[in-house]
Amino acid sequence: xxxxxxxxxxxxxxxxxxxxxxxxxxxxxxxxxxxxxxxxxxxxxxxxxxxxxxxxxxxxxxxxxxxxxxxxxxxxxxxxxxx
Length: 83
Hints:
The radius of gyration is 27 Å and the shape is rod-shaped. The protein is built from 4 helices and no strands. It has helices at 7-22, 27-57, 61-65, 69-76. The model has no long low-confidence stretch (mean pLDDT 76). α2 runs antiparallel to α4.
C-alpha cells in the first residue's frame, strides 16, 4: 500500500482537491448577493415614493431640486430594478 501513497501522489491529490474546492459554488455568497440586490431595489422604490410625496407637498418643490414635474414623475415611475 505504501507504493501508492508516496509523497508526490499525496501532494498532487491535495493540490487537485484544493483547486476543485476553490471553484465550488457558494450558496452563502449567492444568497448574500441576492439579498443585497433586493435591498437596493427596495431602497430605490422607497426613494422614488419619497420623491413623489415631496413633489406633492408643494408645486415649487421640483424647481428646488432642479427638475420639472414631468421629469420627476417619469423618474419615479420607472421599475424598481432600473437605476
